[in-house]
Amino acid sequence: MVRIYTDEIINAVCLNYAERRGVQPSEIEVQLSWDEEYGYTAELWVSGRSQYLIESNLLESIEQYMHSHYNRRVFRSDIKLDIDEDAGEFFADIADQ
């Protein structure tokens, strides 16, 4: 199992949406969150505009990140998002195939 933490999850989202929008990853800001009603979400800011991402968007970004940075093909069903509330740290566990 591989575990990635908040910074790598944010990097995954930034890289994915930078490619989609045709901007540099450094031009994107991301804030992860979790609540009982919506689950894992993120707010993304690019070019002064805000966009909300749902869990499936986050999982897609992690899938692509794992392929490009770890050379591993993973599926959404292999990824489990979680949070360590005491540390305020998000993480994703990626199961071995």
Describe it for me?
This protein has 97 residues and is α+β, with helices and mostly antiparallel strands. The chain is 33% helix and 38% strand. The protein has helices at residues 6-21, 55-70, and strands at 2-5, 28-35, 39-46, 49-53, 79-84, 89-94. The strands form 2 sheets. The chain has a 3-stranded antiparallel β-sheet. It has a 3-stranded antiparallel β-sheet with strand order 2-3-4. Helix 1 crosses helix 2 (55-70). The model has no long low-confidence stretch (mean pLDDT 95).
Give me the secondary-structure topology.
Layout: E1 2-5, H1 6-21, E2 28-35, E3 39-46, E4 49-53, H2 55-70, E5 79-84, E6 89-94
Antiparallel strand pairs: 1-6, 2-3, 3-4, 5-6
Helix pairs in contact: 1-2
InterPro entries: Uncharacterised_YxcD
Organism: Paenibacillus paeoniae
Protein name: DUF2653 family protein
What labels describe this entry?
three-stranded antiparallel β-sheet; 6 strands; 97 residues; 38% strand
Overall strand count = 6
The largest sheet is: 3 strands, antiparallel
The total tally of domains equals 1
Order of helices and strands: EHEEEHEE
Query: What is the 3D form?
Result: globular
Low-pLDDT segments, ≥5 res: none
Largest beta sheet: strand ordering:
1-6-5
The proportion of strand residues reads 35-45%
- Quote the distance from N terminus to C terminus: 9 Å
Q: Which structural class matches the secondary elements?
A: alpha+beta
Mean pLDDT: 95
Radius of gyration: 13 Å
Helix share, percent: 25-40%
Please work out how many helical segments DSSP would assign.
2
